[in-house]
Design brief:
The complex is a heterodimer.
Chain A (H helix, E strand, L loop, with lengths): L12 H9 L5 H17 L23 E2 L16 E6 L2 E2 L13 E5 H7 L18 H9 L3 E6 L9 E6 L7 E3 L2 E6 L4 E9 L6 E10 L4 E9 L5 E10 L4 E10 L2 E10 L5 E10 L4 E10 L5 E10 L4 E10 L7 E10 L5 E10 L5 E9 L3 H8 L5 H17 L5 H14 L3 H7 L1
Parallel strand pairs in A: 1-7, 2-6, 5-8, 6-9, 7-10, 8-10, 9-11, 10-12, 11-13, 12-14, 13-15, 14-16, 15-17, 16-18, 17-19, 18-20, 19-21
Antiparallel strand pairs in A: 2-3, 4-5
Chain B lengths: L1 E10 L2 E11 L4 E5 L6 H9 L5 E9 L2 E2 L5 H6 L2 E4 L11 H15 L7 H15 L4 H4 L8 H15 L3 E5 L7 H13 L6 E6 L12 E6 L2 E6 L1 H10 L2 H5 L7
Parallel strand pairs in B: 3-8, 3-9, 6-7, 7-8
Antiparallel strand pairs in B: 1-2, 1-4, 4-5, 9-10
Classes of the chains: A alpha/beta, B alpha/beta.
């Protein structure tokens, strides 16, 4: 009973070719895809009339003619993370020849989404696409309707992974705009532990990267998740991440947006078991005409949970940033301890920030704080540094570096932290002096 | 070392300093005293190069150069140091790190190589002794969470590391108890040298019991109304400033 409108939305051409190709997919997935496509077909791309998309316009994407990803594109140059298990994707499709999954400890499943679907589709039915928060998210629907590949990471109960897992998503479509749709599923079993480093890296091109991650933490699991978005200046990167936290589990996400023309990161975290802890830290460094939008929604459903959000932005030139952080405390979630802070540093007169922290509290015994600031460098501090011999440019760079370091310093994985410091320093004028003094 | 000639300074169109003449020779310690609002801190900030203060008339010559031609960082590199009345907190910038950046900038200006890490730490250790600074304050961000006394001692510590030729202490004594005051004064005294001069700005005579000045000047309403030696400070301690207001001063008017 395949019904396809003849004038399907142009962004759904991958869905059409999936259906037409007759590739056998598990019934649950075919059903998911059909309903996702139908909902997207009905809603279309979100307009600025929708509250969640008020400051981020995306309707122009309908006019771009995106090609579907091909597995034959030349991969770009990429420096892999040392001593990591690794899956490498080009335009969202797994490239085993670039990957390294030797020596995975027992109890760890790490493979491509396409391979997992072919090998044991029934194991994915329970976790894939069952997340309420991803329904009605137009870009998550786009992904669900037509993703071809991605990553599956599954940790058996009690498994502690010592080496990090790197998921590298490289953009290949330099000569033609490509729609890449990676899908990530992470299921961390009871009391398991892992570190996942997700890199989204491209240099040029006008592609649309639309990524969806579903992360499930069973009781007592700990997942450190690093997302480093460093896309080319004309790339649109839109990600939706759904995280479910079980009892006493801890999810720590460190999101860094370093590059990309239009970047939107949506994180939906649900603390569903007592004692769970969600830490969402982020840093965005923007310049030129970049537009970076971070939407976080943390929902406390169970009592005695904690959540911390620290998002900081450094904006230059005519760039824009949006921060929208919502904390929802359900009626039963007593003793919730939730903190949210968004701080922005404007380096130019023309950069702009919309910061919108929101609290929705339906329990009466909770501690929730939030705050947001938008400011410029402190002239008193600059003068103090200058009066000790440090020139103005270096003083400004030093203060900017210090501002951003609050987030970078929280990265526990040393090679990632060093790399982020290097990137940050490279952005700052006169950084040689800062490096010398470090 | 330093010569101020008929210095007039305005802030937001209000004239704060109304013609200051002052000569500080090598190795001398000059105290500037005066009531609140007399222009003492303005003088300190102008010397350090704060741009919000506009020099409308007069000149400042420092070591033979026109000081007003130099920006704040160049003045520091030339050997001028201001210990702030209100030291600024710099979140995220470690005290050691900051001092290293400052010292290396000054050394580079003088054509000297940057100090290596070991020599630098040795220097810090020596200078910390002078002001009995707790070692933990080295690692903390500059002035952040420091007590009032720690901030003032940290200023003198910075001075000891950067070794200026002219140090201006802007009310370094305010808010210090007598023990902290002695520590700060001992630190300053240990840095007194034939080629180093001090301008000690204070509201109270008390500090001058410990840092004994060669000259004392009284600043009132933007003018130096009287200059003298240490006895003048003691007289002010006894009589306050009022007697100077009623009697037109022989200097600067």
């Amino acid at each position: 009973m395949t019904q396809l409108a003849t004038d399907l939305h142009p962004l759904l051409s991958g869905h059409r070719s999936l259906v037409e190709s007759g590739i056998a997919e598990p019934a649950f997935l075919a059903k998911l895809r059909r309903s996702a496509a139908a909902r997207f077909e009905e809603s279309g791309l979100p307009t600025r009339k929708l509250e969640d998309w008020r400051f981020t316009g995306v309707t122009h994407l309908a006019e771009a003619d995106f090609f579907n990803a091909e597995p034959t594109v030349d991969p770009p140059v990429f420096e892999p993370l040392a001593d990591a298990h690794r899956l490498v994707f080009v335009d969202g499709l797994l490239r085993l020849e670039l990957s390294d999954i030797n020596g995975l400890p027992s109890g760890v499943q790490l493979e491509g989404m396409s391979a997992a679907l072919a090998r044991a589709p029934e194991t994915l039915g329970e976790d894939l696409g069952s997340r309420g928060s991803l329904v009605d998210h137009p870009f998550a629907e786009l992904n669900t309707a037509q993703f071809r590949d991605g990553a599956v990471l599954r940790l058996a109960a009690g498994v502690v992974l010592h080496r990090p897992i790197q998921l590298a998503f490289l953009g290949g479509g330099l000569d033609r705009p490509t729609l890449s749709l990676p899908r990530i599923l992470i299921v961390a079993g009871r009391a398991s532990q892992a570190t996942v480093v997700e890199n989204h890296l491209s240099t040029a091109g006008r592609s649309l990267h639309c990524a969806v991650s579903e992360i499930v933490l069973d009781d007592g699991a700990v997942v450190d998740h690093y997302r480093i978005v460093d896309e080319g200046p004309e790339i649109t990167h839109i990600a939706a991440i759904d995280v479910r936290l079980g009892r006493d589990s801890a999810y720590r996400c460190h999101g860094f947006t370093i590059g990309g023309g239009l970047v939107r990161n949506d994180i939906f975290a649900t603390l569903g078991g007592e004692g769970a802890d969600a830490t969402l830290n982020g840093l965005y460094l923007t310049g030129g005409r970049q537009h970076v939008d971070n939407h976080l929604r943390v929902r406390h459903r169970a009592p005695n949970c904690t959540s911390h959000q620290l998002y900081k932005g450094v904006l230059d030139d005519r760039s824009r940033a949006i921060f929208n952080g919502r904390i929802i405390v359900d009626p039963g979630a007593q003793k919730t301890d939730a903190k949210q802070s968004n701080r922005n540093l404007l380096l130019s007169q023309t950069a702009l920030v919309h910061s919108n922290p929101q609290l929705e509290i339906f329990a009466d015994d909770v501690r929730c704080t939030h705050g947001s600031t938008v400011g410029r460098l402190d002239e008193d501090a600059i003068f103090y540094l200058r009066s000790r011999g440090i020139d103005r440019t270096t003083a400004e760079s030093l203060l900017t570096f210090a501002f951003a370091s609050e987030v970078v310093d929280r990265v526990r994985l040393e090679p990632v932290r060093d790399e982020l410091r290097r990137v940050l320093l490279a952005r700052l004028p006169g950084s040689d002096r800062i490096r010398e003094a470090l | 070392m330093l010569e101020l000639r008929n210095l007039h300074v305005s802030v937001d169109g209000n004239e704060i300093l109304k013609g200051i003449d002052l000569t500080v020779n090598d190795g001398e310690v000059h105290a500037i005293m005066g009531p609140n609002g007399s222009g003492k801190s303005t003088l300190a900030q102008v010397l350090a190069g704060r741009e919000e203060y506009e020099v409308t008339e007069g000149e400042i010559v420092f070591k033979g150069q026109d000081l007003l031609e130099l920006d704040a960082e160049s003045r520091a590199c030339e050997g001028l140091f201001l210990a702030f009345q209100y030291p600024v907190e710099i979140p995220g910038v470690g005290n050691t790190y900051f001092l290293r950046a400052a010292l290396n900038a000054i050394r580079e200006h003088r054509g000297e190589p940057a100090l290596d890490a070991m020599d630098f730490l040795e220097l810090l250790r020596q200078r910390m002794e002078l002001v009995k600074l707790d070692e933990s304050l080295l690692k903390r961000p500059v002035n952040e969470g420091f007590s009032g006394g720690e901030k003032k001692r940290n200023e003198i510590f910075h001075m000891a590391v950067l070794e200026p030729t002219l140090a201006i202490l802007d009310e370094t004594d305010s808010g210090l108890d007598i023990d902290a005051l002695k520590i700060v004064a001992d630190g300053v005294n240990s840095l007194r040298a034939p080629d180093r001069s001090f301008l000690v700005i204070t509201h109270y005579q008390r500090l001058l019991n410990y840092i004994v000045p060669d000259f004392v000047h009284v600043l009132m309403n933007g003018r130096i109304v009287r200059s003298g030696d240490r006895e003048l400070a003691l007289q002010l301690e006894e009589q306050g400033y009022e007697w100077l207001e009623t009697k037109p001063a022989p200097v600067g008017s």
